[in-house]
């Protein structure tokens, strides 16, 4: 069933909403919040939605919101439902951008663009609210805290917010990408982002005087060998076309120059893009550590801390969303990603429950060029092209209207 407004009209309308999106984004950017409870950010979102004909649901575990907008078109209440998601939390890190609206809170920064995700989603509510008489179903907007390692999506799911009637039939999310050309949409079917586990181990020997290592059991050489052997394990035991990343990020041992310590602690990350590679790598870390430690007469206690699963984009929904992006941005509006990113996302929990996808929105700063070094997400100097948020607003709205009106039931 055709709809009476096309993506180009949506983009023009989104541009009219851009000043409000920029204002909200800068407000949130200046007051970044961490974790599952974001009272200032949530209050800012609610203030922007005041007066709209929407329903707002909350759960006990987080300050996240699910905002529901049901179309007034005939039969809309019995139509399908789509979920659009934007995350809201910041990172525990300094900001060194020099922006006039830089973080006012020391040690916190919106370095991953969640402030822009929130601002785009708020204005997508406004844009779709204008056309609620043409919506053939319900749109749910998931304003989610705790993406940066706090499993916010999982908590909101456990609170029942995603299963509340009407239950979404599909889900979509946009993430900004400073490395991509402005206003381009990037994505792929299948694995989009990696799983993210972290591991810790304690290598234990027997302490003693540094001048007489033979009288002790030094755990430091064993720890060094374990760190190197983990890299060899990745190259020798894993298929290069099913990537695995194992990185040692922290080594802690000793107190002074003439004491051999009893223990060494190692901490690191594990990234994979398939469940099988994830299981094999987890087993491999334990095997390598315990056996190398034993060869040095030491022991190794290894703990694997499960993080986000692989973000899997549904191929059917990707095909649909790809066409929406091309309609919105013309021939250059969509770029196919050759490989997944090894970062991780807790939107993966949502995609385990329903078809959908996450795409990236290019927000390369105006002064940058594709061949230049562009500060990436999680950089203390990351900046983005705010004008690109109009494309993000329009993309959210176009996905929702097309899905509710045109996409056949599967």
Which helices and strands occur, and which strands form pairs?
Elements: H1 7-30, H2 39-49, E1 55-58, E2 65-70, E3 81-87, H3 114-130, E4 138-144, H4 152-158, E5 170-177, E6 185-187, E7 190-193, E8 195-204, E9 208-209, H5 219-237, E10 244-253, E11 259-260, E12 263-272, H6 275-295, E13 299-308, E14 311-313, H7 315-329, E15 334-336, H8 347-351, E16 356-362, H9 389-405
Parallel strand pairs: 3-4, 3-5, 5-16, 6-15
Antiparallel strand pairs: 1-2, 2-4, 6-16, 7-14, 8-12, 8-13, 9-11, 10-12
Q: What are the defining features of this structure?
A:
410 residues, disordered N terminus, elongated, alpha/beta, Alpha-Beta Plaits, 33% helix, eight-stranded mixed β-sheet, 2 domains
Notes on the structure:
The protein is of the alpha/beta class. The protein folds into two domains: 7-193 and 310-405, Aminopeptidase, CATH 3.40.630.10; 195-308, Alpha-Beta Plaits. Helices cover 33% and strands 23% of the residues. The strands form four sheets. The protein has an eight-stranded mixed β-sheet, with helices on both faces. Helix 3 (114-130) links the parallel strand 3 and strand 4 (138-144). The longest helix is centred in the first third of the chain and has 24 residues, at 7-30. The radius of gyration is 24 Å and the shape is elongated.
